[in-house]
Amino acid sequence: HACRFCRRRYASKEALAKHEKCHGPDGELKVKCSLCNELFSDESQVKEHKKVIHKEEVTCTYCKKTYAGERNLQIHIELRHTKTKTLKKMSYLCGKCGKNFTSKTALLDHERSDCGKSPIYQCDVCKKFYHSAGSLKGHKTLHTKVKPFLCKYCGKSYRNPGQLRVHERTHTGEKPHKCTYCPKAFSHRETLLTHVTMHT
């Protein structure tokens, strides 16, 4: 049994009838598989095709690593195999979920924690869990009175560099958080978020 549009042959009339539904009224197939360019009549058929034929895994032609889906592969190629000036830092992509990291250590922690679902670093004082060694280290400062980050303007000390940076804006007048609706800018992100609610 041959298709009247593309001459593909099928063993039964039922299989032929199912195939011919993939063609539009003018004989053109409508939806293309992004992995192999085969044409189908709708997205549900493409989805089923990818599950059965491609098993939703795609392989990088440069390094032979496999990724779950075309989108993750494209991100991987852009980050690992494209030499562009916009990529300032070396990037490490999780092959399972597609999340990007700036260091191999961060990627390994992420993978060991089942894509962030099971934190692997535990505080020996309060038994709370964290996803990275850096997060745990920052947390541990809460259990001590140590505040190693000093303000260069007034000498006040803080537990982490983020707190210090926000504090120093009181001295410099820096307002990096700009409203997209009006010309106002703010030192603190939270203040901006409160302000934006007035516009919406």
From TrEMBL:
One function term, GO molecular function aspect: DNA-binding transcription factor activity, RNA polymerase II-specific
Primary location: nucleus
Localisation: Nucleus
Entry superkingdom: Eukaryota
Assigned GO CC terms: nucleus
Record SUPFAM superfamilies: beta-beta-alpha zinc fingers
Keyword field: Metal-binding, Nucleus, Repeat, Transcription, Transcription regulation, Zinc, Zinc-finger
Entry-linked Pfam families: zf-C2H2 (PF00096), zf-C2H2_6 (PF13912)
Repeat keyword on record: yes
Residue intervals of the C2H2-type domain: 1-28, 31-59, 58-86, 92-119, 121-148, 149-176, 177-200
Family (UniProt): Belongs to the krueppel C2H2-type zinc-finger protein family.
Protein known as: Putative c2h2-type zn-finger protein
Record organism: Phlebotomus kandelakii
